[in-house]
Amino acid sequence: MRKDLLGIKDLSSREIEVLLETAERFKEVSEREIKKVPTLRGKTIINLFYEPSTRTRTSFEIAAKRMSADTINISASSSSVVKGETLLDTARNLEAMNPDAVVIRHPFPGAPHMIAKEIKASVINGGDGAHEHPSQALSDLLTVKEKKGRIEGLLIVIAGDIAHSRVARSNILAFKKMGAVVRVVGPPTLIPYGIEDMGVEVSYDLGEAIKDADVIMMLRIQLERQKGGFFPSLREYSALYGLNLEKLKSARRDVVILHPGPINRGIEIAPEVADGPYSLILNQVTNGLAVRMAIFYHLLGGKE
Amino acid sequence: MARARIIMDGRDIERTLTRLSHEILERNKGAEDLVLLGIATRGRFLAMRIRDKIKEIEGIEVPFGVIDPTLYRDDIGRTTTQPPLKEMEIPLPIDDKKVILVDDVLYTGRTVRAAMDALMDFGRPKLIQLAVLIDRGHRELPIRPDFVGKNIPTSLSEEVRVHLKECDGVDEVVLKERDEG
After folding, report:
1. pLDDT tens sequence across B122-147
2. How many domains does chain A have?
3. Residues A116 and A251 placed together within one structural domain of the fold
């Protein structure tokens, strides 16, 4: 395959299909009593995280371990970053220890791309600013495909803070590549200008937007990125754009609900919805692990 | 143009599988504790046919599953693209069972080695036996089959293809020159 996985943008629909098919098979490994295969024995994978993360980092780590690779976790707060080392210097020093893959999460868009050019190891984008989060989008594709049996022709509604969301961006690209129709909905201040150029429909009314949706993907209000006053108050946001049982009444009976986590209970999604029968939030986590195993399998396997 | 020769037809394959089923039962003194595991892809269908024959002979339905050795292969990471994963379906705990691995062609023995390693991750069978439709020689590992349908001496420039109705539409075994490149 390729050396790096930097974004959905670079992948062909065939490559996405291969990754999803592989991930479906890998789910079986995690259901065994001995959850380990020797496939990546002797490989070293570094998780380099410059932003907090529970799900993604743990998921990449467990994925690597179930395939017998050795993993090392580095988080910015406990590394030489606090001493002033540049990202590139950190990457070059890690490279000198000869890892086979580096998973990087960084607040700046394009950080993984820069590293990928500089080091021989495979680079996997674990989320770069508001740019891309490819492994999350692949998990979401797998979750929808599993439940609906297909992606093509479905209507996917992505709701909430589109402007700050790498999950939204990667998912728009991913679902469109696989033939779905994508609609984004949120307050005008959180919908980027010109997003129609990505080939999506735009709506500002959540209740209207979800009426004919096959999939509703709620996004987290990123409290840590909300200093610009994009909406008057969380309470108002929740009233207009939070998904609760009342709003859900207008949706189709076979709709499914996704959320990349972590959820803000009672803000963008009501607890009854997050824990309800339409929710696939925990399936996304299970599938995320299988998808990351598939990513490692294809990236670390091929030899020139 | 590669020369191809049919060395077994559908009736040959049926007769051979009938004999293999009897041999498996004879060697194991019945069908008790047996588990048939086909090596994906074609071993699966051969294992299913042997299961059906054992049921006809003995009246017992032997548990059956599929094992995919891909993640245990010794050439993983040595090829330009990774091989696709196949199905894996172990229907029951295999501890203390007599596991019969079933495959279409035995060649280097590397697939069987990988399948046995995969199997060990699922438990500790009482014993493992190997049943193959074709043994074409050229072993690279100390592995031998317990039940052989047909021994076919081959040269390294030849290949043996087993076609089965379930996935190829026809039952036959073909010997042909390896395609160049």
Report:
1. 999 999 999 999 999 999 999 999 99
2. 2
3. no
Residues A160 and A116 in one domain: no
CB proximity under 8 Å: B 96-135 to A:
117-118, 121-122
Fold classified for B11-74+86-154 = Rossmann fold (3.40.50)
Provide the ipTM.
Answer: 0.86
CATH number for the domain harbouring residue A241: 3.40.50.1370
Domain that holds residue A85: 8-132+288-303
pLDDT digits (tens, 9 = 90+) for A190-204: 999 999 999 999 999
Chain A segment 14-53 residues within 8 A of B by beta carbon are: 18, 21-22, 25-26, 28-29, 32-34, 36-39
- Asked whether the predicted pLDDT for residue A93 surpasses 80, the reply is yes
Instruction: Show the tokens assigned to A287.
Output: 């599938």
Q: What angle do CA A99, A104, A109 make, to 5 degrees?
A: 140
Q: How far is CA B130 from the centre of its chain?
A: 8
Same domain? For A152 and A265 the reply is yes
